[in-house]
Specification:
Length: 365
Amino acid sequence: MKKLLVLTGGGDCPGLNAVIRAIVKRADLTGEWEVHGSLEAYNGILREPHEIIHLTEEVVSGIHAKGGTIIKTTTKGGPFNWPIQNEDGSWGSEDRSGWMIEELSKLGFEAVISIGGDGSQRISQQLFEKGLNIVGVPKTIDNDLAATDFTFGFQTAVEAATDAVDKLVTTAESHHRLMILEVMGRNAGWIALHSAIAGGAEVCLIPEIPYDIEIVKKRLEARYKDGKGFANVVIAEGAHPIDGSITSRKSEEVGYKNVRLGGVAYQLSSQLKDAGFTHDIREMVLGHLQRGGTPNPFDRVLATQFGVKAMEMVLDGNFGNMVVSRNNGIEVVSLKEATRENKNVDPESYLVNTARGVGISFGDI
């Protein structure tokens, strides 16, 4: 039997298990391949002893409806930046990619499928350039990979955010309050934009359109008369004012390279108060609720399509590429093209114009 290794890297995402299940079931139909999973992305290979499990049909039975990933994931470490502790107690990193590729060969693995976002797929490209037979599957709730129309997990995250907007509308109305909902997305405003339109927010603030606090204040004050009224704002975690910066902080976690976003809802609240907004304000950071739970049907179907196609790419020897969703079909692009740039919201897009057409303000005009 030929051996395939599957791993999930980066943040967790609804639909990961559906991809894993689809890969295993498609591989089983060949009668020639067996699938194994590396726990916590590449860490399962890099650790000694290795942490690798055999993914049989029995193991993956029914997991398509389960959130998270049965083979776990991580945003830390990796083959090119493996954390090592120095003699003085400080932490550094080393490149273990060459050793890992040799180890995979010794273990009999003929191919790897990496399920992950832009960071994970850049690692995939680097490993492919070093000779590893690898296929990529795009994953992120942020929907910010330029090569694909949609990534699985996004629609489920939007569903969670929209549900939050719906619930905040009723409490805002009951108390004559302004409710500010902060959603994820890092440097892309897709979750905020979709949930603001679906939930009927008055203001949507996204990274791609820096906002003027005076314009935001004026729009919100128009919702009140004689001290009574209510309003709802959806703000992406990467949103920022004109001439301002993203609200972030450096992580102190060993092996974690990204800055940590979050807290922009409280920053906006403070800015509004400083600008003279006198009505009651409450803030809510939706946080990791957007990442967890059962994937919706759209994401299960998309994830299953990705998994089947990724396995077929392995069967065809179509390595160094990533499966994508384009024009209601499933296609293949090179990892290099897939990671060339991120997909951000176009301020002139029809979706933004749709939002403006129903009176949603982006704080810019």
